[in-house]
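Revision sheet: C-alpha coordinates.
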Amino acid sequence: MTPAELSRAVLRSVRGAVEDGELSVTVPERVVVRVPARGGGGGAADLACSVALQVAKEAGRPSREVAAMLRERLAGVSGIAGVEIAGAGFLNVTLTGAARAGLVWSVLAQGREYGNTAGRGDGQEPGRGCGPVGLRAAAGVRAAVVAEALERILPAGGITAKAEPRGEGSSPHSAVARGRTEEVAPHPVESHPHSPHQDWRTLTARLGPDEARWVLLRVAQQDAVRLPERPVQRESNGRFRVQYAYARTCAMTRNARDLGFAAEPGDMGDGRAVREVWAAVAEYPGVVEAAARHRAPDRVARHLEVTADAWLRCHDVCPPLPVGEEKPSAVHRARLALAEAAGTVLANGLHLLGISTPERL
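Predicted:
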Protein backbone atom coordinates (compact mmCIF):
# COMPACT_ATOMS: atom_id res chain seq x y z
CA MET A 1 0.00 0.00 0.00
CA THR A 2 1.33 3.40 -1.00
CA PRO A 3 0.60 6.69 0.79
CA ALA A 4 -1.62 7.57 -2.19
CA GLU A 5 -3.64 4.36 -1.77
CA LEU A 6 -4.08 4.98 1.95
CA SER A 7 -5.18 8.53 1.13
CA ARG A 8 -7.94 7.14 -1.05
CA ALA A 9 -8.95 4.67 1.67
CA VAL A 10 -9.19 7.50 4.22
CA LEU A 11 -11.31 9.58 1.84
CA ARG A 12 -13.64 6.60 1.33
CA SER A 13 -13.95 6.25 5.12
CA VAL A 14 -14.89 9.92 5.52
CA ARG A 15 -17.35 9.69 2.64
CA GLY A 16 -18.89 6.55 4.11
CA ALA A 17 -19.32 8.20 7.51
CA VAL A 18 -21.05 11.15 5.83
CA GLU A 19 -23.35 8.93 3.75
CA ASP A 20 -24.30 6.91 6.85
CA GLY A 21 -25.12 10.08 8.78
CA GLU A 22 -22.32 9.64 11.33
CA LEU A 23 -20.61 12.85 10.23
CA SER A 24 -22.02 16.06 8.82
CA VAL A 25 -19.05 17.55 6.96
CA THR A 26 -17.90 18.39 3.48
CA VAL A 27 -15.73 15.51 2.28
CA PRO A 28 -12.25 16.99 1.74
CA GLU A 29 -10.80 17.02 -1.75
CA ARG A 30 -7.36 16.33 -0.34
CA VAL A 31 -6.12 14.10 2.46
CA VAL A 32 -2.41 14.21 3.24
CA VAL A 33 -0.75 10.96 4.29
CA ARG A 34 2.82 11.04 5.56
CA VAL A 35 5.39 8.78 7.13
CA PRO A 36 5.39 9.67 10.86
CA ALA A 37 8.61 11.04 12.30
CA ARG A 38 10.44 8.43 14.31
CA GLY A 39 10.26 9.29 17.99
CA GLY A 40 7.53 11.82 17.26
CA GLY A 41 4.59 9.86 18.65
CA GLY A 42 4.18 7.62 15.61
CA GLY A 43 5.50 4.55 17.41
CA ALA A 44 5.83 1.65 14.98
CA ALA A 45 3.27 3.09 12.55
CA ASP A 46 4.09 3.09 8.85
CA LEU A 47 1.85 5.98 7.80
CA ALA A 48 -0.09 8.76 9.52
CA CYS A 49 -2.99 11.04 8.64
CA SER A 50 -4.49 14.13 10.31
CA VAL A 51 -7.88 14.06 8.57
CA ALA A 52 -9.79 13.91 11.87
CA LEU A 53 -8.31 17.26 12.89
CA GLN A 54 -9.11 18.57 9.41
CA VAL A 55 -12.87 17.89 9.63
CA ALA A 56 -13.56 17.97 13.39
CA LYS A 57 -14.40 21.68 13.57
CA GLU A 58 -17.02 21.46 10.83
CA ALA A 59 -18.41 18.29 12.40
CA GLY A 60 -18.70 20.06 15.76
CA ARG A 61 -17.13 17.06 17.51
CA PRO A 62 -13.82 16.41 19.28
CA SER A 63 -11.11 15.36 16.84
CA ARG A 64 -10.30 12.19 18.80
CA GLU A 65 -13.95 11.16 18.57
CA VAL A 66 -13.87 11.66 14.81
CA ALA A 67 -10.61 9.72 14.66
CA ALA A 68 -12.17 6.82 16.58
CA MET A 69 -15.04 6.73 14.10
CA LEU A 70 -12.67 6.61 11.13
CA ARG A 71 -10.42 4.06 12.82
CA GLU A 72 -13.31 1.59 12.91
CA ARG A 73 -13.85 2.00 9.19
CA LEU A 74 -10.16 1.74 8.30
CA ALA A 75 -9.58 -1.34 10.44
CA GLY A 76 -11.25 -3.56 7.83
CA VAL A 77 -9.31 -2.23 4.84
CA SER A 78 -7.09 -4.79 3.13
CA GLY A 79 -3.41 -4.19 3.88
CA ILE A 80 -3.98 -2.40 7.18
CA ALA A 81 -2.80 -4.36 10.21
CA GLY A 82 -3.88 -1.80 12.80
CA VAL A 83 -4.83 1.84 13.42
CA GLU A 84 -3.97 3.78 16.57
CA ILE A 85 -5.05 7.25 17.63
CA ALA A 86 -2.26 9.56 18.77
CA GLY A 87 -2.21 13.06 20.21
CA ALA A 88 -5.16 15.26 19.34
CA GLY A 89 -6.51 12.77 16.80
CA PHE A 90 -3.83 11.61 14.41
CA LEU A 91 -4.48 8.24 12.77
CA ASN A 92 -1.32 6.12 12.90
CA VAL A 93 -1.59 3.20 10.51
CA THR A 94 0.47 0.00 10.64
CA LEU A 95 0.52 -2.01 7.43
CA THR A 96 0.75 -5.72 6.84
CA GLY A 97 3.93 -7.19 5.39
CA ALA A 98 2.13 -7.73 2.08
CA ALA A 99 1.08 -4.07 1.98
CA ARG A 100 4.67 -2.94 2.53
CA ALA A 101 5.76 -5.24 -0.27
CA GLY A 102 3.08 -3.66 -2.46
CA LEU A 103 4.81 -0.29 -2.19
CA VAL A 104 8.09 -1.88 -3.30
CA TRP A 105 6.32 -3.48 -6.28
CA SER A 106 4.91 -0.06 -7.18
CA VAL A 107 8.30 1.67 -7.00
CA LEU A 108 10.02 -0.94 -9.15
CA ALA A 109 7.18 -0.86 -11.68
CA GLN A 110 7.30 2.94 -11.98
CA GLY A 111 11.09 3.18 -12.13
CA ARG A 112 12.15 6.62 -13.31
CA GLU A 113 8.58 7.90 -12.90
CA TYR A 114 8.46 7.17 -9.17
CA GLY A 115 8.12 10.47 -7.32
CA ASN A 116 6.66 12.26 -10.34
CA THR A 117 3.39 13.35 -8.76
CA ALA A 118 2.00 15.30 -11.72
CA GLY A 119 -1.53 14.32 -12.64
CA ARG A 120 -1.69 11.33 -10.31
CA GLY A 121 -5.34 12.00 -9.35
CA ASP A 122 -5.16 10.47 -5.86
CA GLY A 123 -6.61 13.28 -3.76
CA GLN A 124 -3.21 14.75 -3.00
CA GLU A 125 -2.55 16.82 -6.12
CA PRO A 126 0.25 19.31 -5.43
CA GLY A 127 0.42 22.81 -6.76
CA ARG A 128 -3.35 23.05 -7.14
CA GLY A 129 -4.28 26.35 -8.75
CA CYS A 130 -0.67 27.45 -9.20
CA GLY A 131 -0.74 27.42 -12.99
CA PRO A 132 2.40 27.72 -15.09
CA VAL A 133 5.36 29.24 -13.29
CA GLY A 134 8.34 30.80 -14.98
CA LEU A 135 11.78 31.00 -13.45
CA ARG A 136 14.38 33.69 -13.95
CA ALA A 137 17.77 33.24 -12.35
CA ALA A 138 18.98 36.24 -10.42
CA ALA A 139 22.61 37.29 -10.66
CA GLY A 140 25.08 34.66 -9.56
CA VAL A 141 25.86 31.05 -10.29
CA ARG A 142 24.05 29.69 -7.25
CA ALA A 143 20.72 31.21 -8.23
CA ALA A 144 21.11 29.88 -11.75
CA VAL A 145 21.88 26.34 -10.51
CA VAL A 146 18.82 26.48 -8.23
CA ALA A 147 16.67 27.64 -11.15
CA GLU A 148 17.99 24.80 -13.31
CA ALA A 149 17.08 22.23 -10.64
CA LEU A 150 13.63 23.76 -10.19
CA GLU A 151 12.95 23.37 -13.90
CA ARG A 152 12.97 19.61 -13.20
CA ILE A 153 11.51 19.60 -9.69
CA LEU A 154 8.44 21.77 -10.38
CA PRO A 155 7.00 19.51 -13.12
CA ALA A 156 7.77 16.43 -11.01
CA GLY A 157 5.84 18.05 -8.17
CA GLY A 158 2.87 18.84 -10.40
CA ILE A 159 3.67 22.48 -11.15
CA THR A 160 4.23 23.57 -14.75
CA ALA A 161 7.43 25.55 -15.24
CA LYS A 162 8.16 27.45 -18.44
CA ALA A 163 11.64 28.61 -19.33
CA GLU A 164 13.32 30.05 -22.38
CA PRO A 165 16.45 28.48 -23.84
CA ARG A 166 19.80 29.09 -22.24
CA GLY A 167 21.20 32.54 -22.73
CA GLU A 168 24.51 34.18 -22.04
CA GLY A 169 25.54 33.90 -18.39
CA SER A 170 27.62 32.09 -15.85
CA SER A 171 25.24 29.21 -15.22
CA PRO A 172 24.83 25.79 -16.81
CA HIS A 173 21.26 26.73 -17.73
CA SER A 174 19.74 30.17 -17.24
CA ALA A 175 15.98 29.99 -16.74
CA VAL A 176 14.02 32.93 -18.12
CA ALA A 177 10.32 33.19 -17.55
CA ARG A 178 7.42 33.59 -19.87
CA GLY A 179 4.25 34.70 -18.12
CA ARG A 180 4.21 34.80 -14.31
CA THR A 181 7.78 34.95 -13.10
CA GLU A 182 9.57 34.01 -9.92
CA GLU A 183 13.07 35.27 -9.39
CA VAL A 184 15.32 32.76 -7.69
CA ALA A 185 17.79 34.70 -5.57
CA PRO A 186 19.39 32.62 -2.81
CA HIS A 187 21.89 33.89 -0.26
CA PRO A 188 25.33 34.49 -1.76
CA VAL A 189 28.09 31.91 -1.89
CA GLU A 190 31.03 32.07 0.48
CA SER A 191 34.31 30.54 -0.62
CA HIS A 192 38.04 30.66 -0.12
CA PRO A 193 39.15 34.23 -0.91
CA HIS A 194 41.50 33.05 -3.66
CA SER A 195 38.87 30.83 -5.34
CA PRO A 196 36.65 32.77 -7.73
CA HIS A 197 33.16 31.24 -7.65
CA GLN A 198 31.15 33.52 -9.90
CA ASP A 199 32.10 31.59 -13.04
CA TRP A 200 30.51 28.15 -13.55
CA ARG A 201 33.44 26.84 -15.58
CA THR A 202 35.93 27.85 -12.93
CA LEU A 203 33.82 26.30 -10.21
CA THR A 204 33.37 22.99 -12.00
CA ALA A 205 37.04 22.84 -12.91
CA ARG A 206 37.77 23.05 -9.19
CA LEU A 207 35.05 20.79 -7.80
CA GLY A 208 33.55 18.92 -10.73
CA PRO A 209 29.92 19.45 -11.82
CA ASP A 210 28.42 16.94 -9.36
CA GLU A 211 30.10 18.41 -6.28
CA ALA A 212 29.44 21.97 -7.45
CA ARG A 213 25.73 21.34 -7.86
CA TRP A 214 25.49 19.48 -4.55
CA VAL A 215 27.12 22.17 -2.44
CA LEU A 216 24.99 24.88 -4.09
CA LEU A 217 21.72 22.95 -3.72
CA ARG A 218 22.16 21.12 -0.41
CA VAL A 219 21.95 24.25 1.77
CA ALA A 220 18.64 26.04 2.28
CA GLN A 221 18.39 29.11 0.08
CA GLN A 222 18.35 31.56 2.98
CA ASP A 223 21.70 30.23 4.21
CA ALA A 224 25.16 30.98 2.88
CA VAL A 225 27.19 28.30 1.11
CA ARG A 226 30.80 27.55 1.96
CA LEU A 227 32.60 25.98 -0.95
CA PRO A 228 35.16 23.30 -0.11
CA GLU A 229 38.74 23.55 -1.32
CA ARG A 230 38.28 20.34 -3.31
CA PRO A 231 35.73 17.51 -3.58
CA VAL A 232 35.96 14.98 -0.74
CA GLN A 233 35.49 11.34 -1.75
CA ARG A 234 34.50 9.93 1.62
CA GLU A 235 31.33 9.30 3.61
CA SER A 236 31.51 12.62 5.46
CA ASN A 237 30.52 14.18 2.12
CA GLY A 238 26.75 13.86 1.61
CA ARG A 239 27.00 13.86 -2.19
CA PHE A 240 29.56 11.05 -2.17
CA ARG A 241 27.52 9.09 0.39
CA VAL A 242 24.39 9.29 -1.75
CA GLN A 243 26.21 8.28 -4.93
CA TYR A 244 28.02 5.51 -3.05
CA ALA A 245 24.75 4.16 -1.64
CA TYR A 246 23.25 4.11 -5.13
CA ALA A 247 26.30 2.30 -6.50
CA ARG A 248 25.96 -0.28 -3.68
CA THR A 249 22.34 -0.99 -4.66
CA CYS A 250 23.54 -1.60 -8.23
CA ALA A 251 26.28 -3.90 -6.92
CA MET A 252 23.69 -5.89 -4.95
CA THR A 253 21.71 -6.51 -8.13
CA ARG A 254 24.82 -7.59 -10.06
CA ASN A 255 26.02 -9.87 -7.27
CA ALA A 256 22.58 -11.44 -6.86
CA ARG A 257 22.49 -12.14 -10.59
CA ASP A 258 25.84 -13.92 -10.26
CA LEU A 259 24.34 -16.02 -7.45
CA GLY A 260 21.38 -16.93 -9.62
CA PHE A 261 18.53 -14.97 -8.07
CA ALA A 262 16.69 -11.70 -8.57
CA ALA A 263 14.63 -9.24 -6.58
CA GLU A 264 11.07 -10.17 -5.65
CA PRO A 265 9.08 -7.93 -3.28
CA GLY A 266 7.75 -9.82 -0.28
CA ASP A 267 8.18 -10.18 3.47
CA MET A 268 11.36 -8.26 4.30
CA GLY A 269 11.17 -8.83 8.04
CA ASP A 270 10.06 -6.28 10.58
CA GLY A 271 13.38 -4.98 11.86
CA ARG A 272 13.91 -1.30 12.48
CA ALA A 273 16.55 -0.97 9.76
CA VAL A 274 14.22 -2.43 7.12
CA ARG A 275 11.35 -0.21 8.21
CA GLU A 276 13.53 2.92 8.02
CA VAL A 277 14.45 2.18 4.41
CA TRP A 278 10.81 1.46 3.56
CA ALA A 279 9.78 4.74 5.19
CA ALA A 280 12.37 6.74 3.23
CA VAL A 281 11.18 5.16 -0.03
CA ALA A 282 7.51 5.78 0.82
CA GLU A 283 8.12 9.41 1.73
CA TYR A 284 9.98 10.38 -1.45
CA PRO A 285 6.98 11.55 -3.57
CA GLY A 286 5.85 13.80 -0.71
CA VAL A 287 9.33 15.28 -0.49
CA VAL A 288 9.31 16.08 -4.22
CA GLU A 289 5.91 17.71 -3.87
CA ALA A 290 7.10 19.83 -0.93
CA ALA A 291 10.31 20.78 -2.75
CA ALA A 292 8.23 22.00 -5.70
CA ARG A 293 5.71 23.83 -3.53
CA HIS A 294 8.39 25.63 -1.51
CA ARG A 295 10.85 26.03 -4.41
CA ALA A 296 13.43 24.22 -2.24
CA PRO A 297 15.79 21.75 -3.96
CA ASP A 298 17.58 21.33 -0.61
CA ARG A 299 14.62 19.23 0.58
CA VAL A 300 15.37 16.66 -2.11
CA ALA A 301 19.09 16.64 -1.28
CA ARG A 302 18.48 16.15 2.43
CA HIS A 303 16.02 13.32 1.80
CA LEU A 304 18.55 11.58 -0.41
CA GLU A 305 20.97 11.65 2.53
CA VAL A 306 18.28 10.15 4.78
CA THR A 307 17.59 7.41 2.23
CA ALA A 308 21.28 6.66 1.68
CA ASP A 309 22.01 6.48 5.41
CA ALA A 310 19.00 4.21 6.05
CA TRP A 311 19.98 1.87 3.22
CA LEU A 312 23.63 1.65 4.27
CA ARG A 313 22.60 0.82 7.87
CA CYS A 314 20.14 -1.79 6.61
CA HIS A 315 22.77 -3.31 4.33
CA ASP A 316 24.99 -3.90 7.35
CA VAL A 317 22.40 -5.48 9.66
CA CYS A 318 19.95 -7.04 7.17
CA PRO A 319 22.09 -7.97 4.14
CA PRO A 320 20.15 -8.65 0.96
CA LEU A 321 22.66 -11.30 -0.14
CA PRO A 322 23.25 -14.65 1.54
CA VAL A 323 26.36 -14.93 3.72
CA GLY A 324 28.81 -17.82 3.56
CA GLU A 325 27.13 -21.12 2.70
CA GLU A 326 23.66 -19.66 3.15
CA LYS A 327 21.27 -20.21 0.25
CA PRO A 328 19.21 -17.36 -1.24
CA SER A 329 15.79 -17.23 0.40
CA ALA A 330 12.53 -15.35 -0.09
CA VAL A 331 13.72 -12.84 2.52
CA HIS A 332 16.89 -12.18 0.52
CA ARG A 333 14.83 -11.60 -2.64
CA ALA A 334 12.53 -9.23 -0.75
CA ARG A 335 15.42 -7.28 0.77
CA LEU A 336 17.06 -7.04 -2.64
CA ALA A 337 13.82 -5.59 -3.99
CA LEU A 338 13.83 -3.03 -1.17
CA ALA A 339 17.45 -2.18 -2.02
CA GLU A 340 16.48 -1.65 -5.66
CA ALA A 341 13.57 0.55 -4.56
CA ALA A 342 15.98 2.64 -2.47
CA GLY A 343 18.26 2.82 -5.49
CA THR A 344 15.34 4.07 -7.57
CA VAL A 345 14.74 6.90 -5.10
CA LEU A 346 18.43 7.82 -5.02
CA ALA A 347 18.72 7.80 -8.82
CA ASN A 348 15.52 9.79 -9.36
CA GLY A 349 16.46 12.38 -6.74
CA LEU A 350 19.96 12.83 -8.12
CA HIS A 351 18.46 13.26 -11.58
CA LEU A 352 16.22 16.07 -10.30
CA LEU A 353 19.31 17.81 -8.91
CA GLY A 354 21.27 17.33 -12.15
CA ILE A 355 23.83 15.02 -10.52
CA SER A 356 25.14 11.82 -12.08
CA THR A 357 24.30 8.28 -10.94
CA PRO A 358 27.47 6.16 -11.28
CA GLU A 359 26.76 2.43 -10.95
CA ARG A 360 30.32 1.81 -9.74
CA LEU A 361 32.45 3.89 -7.39
